[in-house]
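Q: I have 351 residues here and want to know how they pack in 3D. Can you give me a structure?
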Amino acid sequence: MPSFVRKARQRFLILGGTGFVSGAVAAEAVARGHDVTCVARGTGGSPPEGARLFRADRDAPDALAGLADTRFDAVVETATLSLPWVHRALRAVSADHWTFVSSISVYADTHTRGQTARSAPLRPALPHDTTSYDPAHDPEPSQARYGGVKLACEHAVREATGDRSFIVRPGLVIGPGDDVGPFGYWPLRMARGGTAVVPPDEAADGSSLPAQCLDVRDLAAWIVDRACERASGVFDAAGPPVPLRSLLGEVADAVGHAALELVPVPEDILRNAGVQPWTGPRSLPLWPPRELYGALSRDVAPSVDAGLRSRPIGETAQAVLRDRLDRGAGKRPVAGLTPVEEAAVLRSTGG
């Protein structure tokens, strides 16, 4: 039996609450009837309805001083790339339980398939990195720095809270509200119909190209579950590893236009046509470079045993399509091929 009395209504502090992941966590906690406070500048969006906003610029040393007299049942920290933020929060806020949302970028080996949180080697932590993250000047920090800072944040949380902390290392998180990730291209493309260029069915070594992602709503539900249960430990947060062709097939079945044909294009033709892997302009989203095969093939059985659940990918595709169309986010993909670029690739195949 757990050593605590579980409360029907708990006091949550979400350090964030207006971003993609933190907003989903706040929305999940509110939906369950919890008392939710979100900490954010308040300039990049609003927290979900039902949550209160505590405005704070976390670069200021005393940003959280106004929370010192309140004890929370659970804190969820989502600091992207700021170890000082984490240290200040741990000193300023009192709570029975802490969740830190880390990243699979903490792992040094992204090539080897089938690794777990216990078996995979880690990058060197960067406990002395005090540089503030400025996306305007450093939009894509190196994985060594990003993972190293995240790992240092993990260490800080565990040292301060011991077995009162739950460390989550998400992989590719997808779902409604995400405008920058690679997944969102596919529901829009499949719904448009016609002849769609998709990655090859197999890698150069004959193995299936890997895919692994998790709906942000499933991640949020797991985080709230574990916080309410005062769970501890370090876990990966990802859906089941599947062949990429299967994932794209599920998306097509869920949202695809009746007149849709998927055409796998060999890797050499894609590269000769200047198509980039994974994400960004003129890319074929989710087509993984070799260095990501391991990052997209993690063994998440321990997380499933700890209560992580993943909805069907088709359900996520439907939600993403509705969200993109409702918000007018389908005009120009952040990642993927434009119709003109796709047509040029098809011509190069002789199709």
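Q: Anything worth noting?
A: The chain has a mean pLDDT of 93. The two ends are 63 Å apart (CA to CA).
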